[in-house]
Amino acid sequence: MFTAIADKYDLLNSVLSFGQDAAWRRFTAARCGRQADGLILDVATGTAELARHLARHNDRGRVVGVAFCADMLDKAKTRLSVSGNDKRIELVLGDALRLPFPDDSFNCVTIGFALRNVSSIEAAFGEMTRVVKPGGSVISLELTRPHSRLVRAVYYLYLFRIAPYIGGLISRRKEAYTYLPDSILEFPSPEQVVRIIEEAGLEKVETYRLTFGAATVHVGLKPAA
């Protein structure tokens, strides 16, 4: 599915979120803090949009992006080369549930819009916790359900009726954008995600609901050694 929509993925993210996806990524990158000479991992990096925001925010650190879809990474490499960020971001083909990195390797680990697509959210957080250094943070950005009933009603109308039509029209792959609302509805609530994060071994979990709760950022810290 991701191979099929790779060319239109970033365009549709922007169109379907009314441009909010960039603001959500900037907010997520800012939560990572300034990692002077540090190393940041972006899990399921896709076309490396979040990785680029991380690199901009951390102008002295290095960013590694890992993803399982080779076509998405090829798209990312092309965009990074054009933007001039290819030397500060390294891209690696790999599985979010079996990260190809040693324990305690990164100052900060992020994942954006990808937890809905893994077979085990618990395993994904377990792996991210494993590879982040003690005292480092694990940050998740994900699409979620608005908390207001009124906003949720309008949101569901858009999500189930309008977004799949626009997504299918632009990408020619309607099934990918029919999958989108189902994956959001099936995703755990922010409160449930907090429990999963804590069970993975992270602490002091913070939750940020963005744009009426259409997206949520979670930040957890790995206990210092």
**What general form does the structure show?**
globular
Instruction: Look at the structure and give the mean pLDDT.
Output: 86
Tally the beta strands. Answer: 7
Secondary structure tally, helices: 9
Summarize the entry for a quick read.
With 225 residues, the protein is α/β, with parallel strands linked by helices. The protein is 46% helix and 22% strand.
What does this protein structure show overall?
This protein has a single domain (2-145, 188-219), classed as Vaccinia Virus protein VP39 (Rossmann fold), CATH 3.40.50. The chain is an alpha/beta fold. The chain has 9 helices and 7 strands, in the order αααβαβαββαβαααββ. It has a 7-stranded mixed beta sheet with strand order 3-2-1-4-5-7-6, with helices on both faces. The model has no long low-confidence stretch (mean pLDDT 86).
Topology overview:
Elements: H1 2-5, H2 9-16, H3 20-31, E1 39-43, H4 49-57, E2 62-67, H5 70-83, E3 89-93, E4 106-112, H6 121-131, E5 132-143, H7 149-171, H8 174-186, H9 190-199, E6 203-210, E7 215-221
Parallel strand pairs: 1-2, 1-4, 2-3, 4-5
Antiparallel strand pairs: 5-7, 6-7
Keywords:
alpha/beta; 9 helices; 7-stranded mixed β-sheet; single chain; 225 residues; Rossmann fold
